[in-house]
Design brief:
The complex is a heterotrimer of chains A (about 280), B (about 220) and C (about 220). Chain A is α/β, with parallel strands linked by helices and about 280 residues long. Chain A contains 9 helices and 12 strands. Chain B is mainly alpha-helical and about 220 residues long. Chain B is flat, with a radius of gyration of 21 Å. The chains are: A alpha/beta (about 280), B mainly alpha (about 220), C mainly alpha (about 220).
């Protein structure tokens, strides 16, 4: 076990306090697969209600950021805070230690995620998918859970398909149900991991308009990884360009996309715009 | 209650080890028959004759759906009624051979069907005879993936040899029964037999798994 | 004696035997399902001890012959103080033996459920138990049915061995008829046909029907 400075947990706060506590904070987060460094000392704050889009070439670590926040991956060093509380670590005897399963479950409830391949439960209907979490995890009654689910399915425009199984739905429809399913858990932070990358071009707008609606009408904090630069420009508060496990450049859409400062940012953007 | 007699163990061990040799022989012999006969069954289902394919197919299904023990009895007792005086060994080998030939024919069929159609067409394009096509092109490619399944059935045959005890073949189970009946002690003979089976089948199964992984790795490279 | 007369004379024997065989088959199948599920799940548990116990059970029952196991449980187990009715020894041993094979099928089926399902359940903050029970196992069930169908046939064939510890099943009765009449072809032939009918025209169709029902539940038509 490394005893260098990075693994010294005493440098990290037990809790974030103050006036402008970020909803999400990555502090010095590093992730390695063997000798491959995927994320290299990442520092990233996301304010409450902020919409941050992460772009970058594949292998730059952008999906890993989301997956670590959803506790689908462990981190090697650093601390992630959610809503002021540490996620990856917990307090014990006044010090920070690695979080146990119970603590993870506690903090994880604040985060929701939508996946590139939807991952709807095939043996349940659209409605079934959306009541599963509220009933099994939040303990809602069937009636309450269905009320909430129907409201959300209506929000994403899938109310009439509530009794259909995922195999009967198009990709765009499935992804919308997946969004409703995640929202049914009332998370404070929503993660979107390349949610349009697996869709046929003509149904992408179905999903992007739902996300646009969420940004406009709700105070959800959102992190999105996407290749849809145009959409990102339209709805993001901030865009981060990842490269080699670090943030190469970040800023408002106008700043980053119209006037990139770094060479690698310029290269990436011109390559992406070429492709479109 | 539990009273293991060590000297009794040493006394019966040589006899049991000898019987273990018989068991291995019976398994090996039966397997040899099955390997060859299974190929015959598999190829017979690929001929142009629809009648032959149907008959062999039904035969294979019948053999796979009925207990080996019953087939052993059938061949041993009914054989003579068709003029075949069969020794227990012969009847046993035929029964095991037939039974596992049916299983192996399915393994072969799967292997052959997995050879890409293009191989058959290429062979035809250079005017290879059917026999040569099978021998030099198809079977060499069908075999590697089939070997894992074949290995599993080898272990299976070995574990089925005790059934031959019921028609008097002097393998492990039969010998253990005799020892038990002669001495009124079953604890040591049966336990030792169990241990001998474990001692042979576990390493064999482990070797087959290693072989399968190595093969899969090799196939992965060549794919 | 012509076959029809033979059948009429000894039908009651065959029917009695068949009923016992069916009982053995049904109970052994139940034991096998439970054993396979429990040991298959244990083999994937995080705890090394739990995994070891499962592996020992699986390797012992897969590494030894069913017949040896039957004899051992019938003759040797009483020496340890556990004396069981031979009918019970029969289906218990057959069930435990094939349950060990089933454990591998359980493991394979669970691992065939796409990774995304595990992740989606985690994203909804489901507990591992709920996730297994409500999301993974229902989907694994569809994957396991085809190979389990083959295992069911093996269980049916395996029950024939209980005749050798004197359980009066179809195999046993057939041997009796053969010993009394020496009409081996008729006796053993009839038994072969009965087993075949059960395997090919009852077990297999039922398993295929189950496969279709489960596929429909998953939404695959």
């Amino acid at each position: 076990m490394n005893h260098d400075k990075r693994h010294d947990l005493s440098q990290y706060a037990l809790r974030l306090e103050g006036d402008n506590v970020p909803m999400v904070r990555f502090q010095n987060v590093t992730k390695k697969y063997g000798s491959l460094v995927v994320l290299d000392g990442l520092n990233l704050d996301v304010a409450e209600g902020e919409m941050v889009t992460i772009i970058g070439p594949s292998g730059s670590g952008k999906t890993t950021v989301l997956r670590m926040l959803m506790t689908l991956e462990t981190i090697d060093s650093g601390v992630i805070y959610v809503d002021g509380e540490p996620l990856t670590h917990m307090e014990k005897n006044g010090r920070l230690v690695r979080a146990n399963a119970a603590h993870l479950r506690l903090i994880r409830s604040k985060i929701g995620m939508c996946f590139q391949h939807f991952n709807l439960f095939p043996h349940m209907t659209a409605l079934g998918n959306c009541v599963e979490g509220p009933m099994q995890v939040l303990g809602l009654s069937k009636q309450k859970a269905e009320e909430r689910a129907l409201e959300l399915l209506d929000l994403v425009g899938m109310a009439d398909k509530r009794d259909q199984h995922p195999s009967r739905l198009s990709g765009g429809q499935q992804q919308r149900v997946a969004i409703a399913r995640a929202l049914a858990m009332r998370p404070k932070v929503m993660l979107f991991d390349e949610v349009t990358s697996a869709l046929d071009p003509e149904v992408i707008s179905e999903v992007t308009s739902v996300i646009r609606g969420l940004v406009e009408q709700h105070n959800l904090t959102m992190l999105m990884v996407t290749h849809q630069i145009g959409f990102a420009r339209e709805i993001s508060d901030r865009i981060c360009l990842f490269f080699d496990g670090k943030i190469e450049e970040q800023g408002s859409p106008e700043m980053l996309l119209n006037d990139p400062q770094n060479e690698r940012t310029q290269q990436f953007l011109s390559a992406v715009l070429e492709a479109n | 209650m539990l009273d293991w007699k060590m000297d009794f163990t040493w006394e019966i061990l040589p006899r049991l080890l000898l019987a273990a040799g018989n068991t291995v022989l019976a398994a090996g012999g039966g397997y040899a028959v099955a390997v060859v006969l299974g190929l015959v069954f598999a190829l017979a289902q690929r001929t142009r004759s629809r009648t032959l394919t149907f008959i062999v197919r039904e035969l294979v299904e019948f053999i796979r759906s009925t207990p080996l023990l019953l087939q052993i009895f059938f061949i041993f007792y009914v054989g003579p009624q068709f003029g075949l005086r069969l020794s227990p060994w012969a009847a046993g080998l035929i029964a095991i051979g037939l039974h596992y030939a049916a299983y192996l024919s399915e393994v072969y069929r799967g292997g052959i069907e997995n050879v890409p159609k293009g191989q058959w067409e290429a062979a035809k394009a250079i005017n290879l005879s059917t026999v040569a096509t099978y021998r030099r092109i198809i079977i060499p490619q069908a075999l590697p993936p089939a070997l894992a399944g074949m290995g599993n059935y080898l272990v299976g045959i070995f574990k089925d040899t005790p059934m031959l005890s019921v028609i008097g073949v002097a393998e492990l189970m039969h010998t253990a029964n005799s020892i038990g009946a002669e001495n009124f002690r079953y604890l040591e003979p049966y336990t030792i037999v169990g241990l001998i089976f474990l001692a042979i089948s576990l390493p064999t199964a482990w070797l087959i798994r290693r072989f399968e992984t190595a093969l899969r790795r090799k196939m992965g490279l060549t794919k | 004696m012509p076959y029809l007369d033979f059948l009429m004379t000894y039908s009651s024997r065959f029917i009695d035997g068949t009923l016992i065989t069916l009982g053995q088959f049904g109970l052994a199948a139940l034991v096998a399902i439970v054993a396979a599920l429990v040991s298959g799940l244990m083999k994937m548990a995080p705890s090394k001890t739990v995994r070891a116990v499962a592996i020992i059970y699986i390797e012992i029952f897969r590494g030894t012959s069913l017949l040896v196991q039957l004899y051992w449980f019938y003759f040797v187990l009483p020496l340890f103080g556990f004396t069981l009715e031979k009918f019970t020894v029969g289906f218990l041993t057959v069930g435990l033996c094939y349950g060990a094979y089933g454990a591998e099928l359980v493991r394979g089926a669970i691992q065939s459920v796409p990774r995304g399902q595990w992740e989606a359940a985690l994203a909804l903050n489901m507990s591992p138990a709920k996730r297994m029970q409500r999301i993974i196992l229902p989907q694994a069930l569809v994957a396991i049915l085809p190979p389990w169908g083959n295992l069911m046939i093996e269980i049916l064939k395996g029950t024939a061995l209980v005749a050798l510890i004197s359980v009066t099943d179809l195999m046993f009765e057939t041997r009796q008829v053969n010993n009394n009449t020496y009409l081996s072809a008729q006796a053993f032939g009839t038994a072969l046909i009965i087993y075949y009918i059960f395997a090919r025209f009852m077990v297999t169709p039922v398993m295929r029907w189950l496969e279709r029902v489960m596929a429909r539940k998953i939404g695959r038509t």
